[in-house]
Amino acid sequence: QVQLVESGGGLVQPGGSLKLSCAASGIIFSINTMAWYRQAPGKERELVAVITGGGATNYADSVKGRFTISRANAKNTVFLQMNNLKPEDTGVYYCHAAIRTYRELETWGQGTLVTVSE
User: Fold this and answer.
1) How confident is the model at residue 1 (pLDDT cuts 50, 70, 90)?
2) Which of 25, 82, 87, 89 is the most core-located residue (most Cβ within 10 A)?
3) Which residues pair with 112 in a beta bridge?
4) At CB < 8 A and 24+ separation, what contacts does 92-95 make?
């Protein structure tokens, strides 16, 4: 069984920083795309940042220049460094990965809450 476990969420003041981590575990042959999504209260889940197996990245316009996605392939881990956080960044952040095990799996983590408030 493959699973993703996120960590690093919490309460931070506007202008502050947080770093999220997401580690994949289980029988994993390879991981292609890894991504972070978020869901604010009363809103739909949205893509925040994505990184391919080759390291190419893409970001939502709302986080460009403030967030950085990276990965440690040897540890099957993806990170999201979030700087200059704003109240509108508040939400549950979910990790997603396209994992190749005995079959292709689209896998989600359980989510970690980020709250940006005074």
Assistant:
1) confident
2) 82
3) 93
4) 92/38, 92/39, 93/6, 93/9, 93/20, 93/36, 93/37, 93/38, 93/48, 94/6, 94/36, 94/37, 94/38, 94/39, 94/45, 95/4, 95/6, 95/20, 95/22, 95/34, 95/35, 95/36
Residue indicated by tokens 């994992």? 99
Tell me the residue type at 101.
T
Structure confidence by residue, pLDDT tens digits, 20-63:
999 999 999 999 999 999 999 999 999 999 999 999 999 999 99
CB-CB neighbours of 105 under 10 Å: 15
Q: Which of 60, 61, 64, 62 is nearest to 47 (CA)?
A: 60
Q: How far is CA 71 from CA 18, 43, 58, 88, 102, in A?
A: 16, 27, 13, 25, 22
Provide long-range contacts, Cβ within 8 A and 24+ apart, for 60-66. 62/88, 63/89
Closest C-alpha among 9, 1, 29 to residue 95: 9
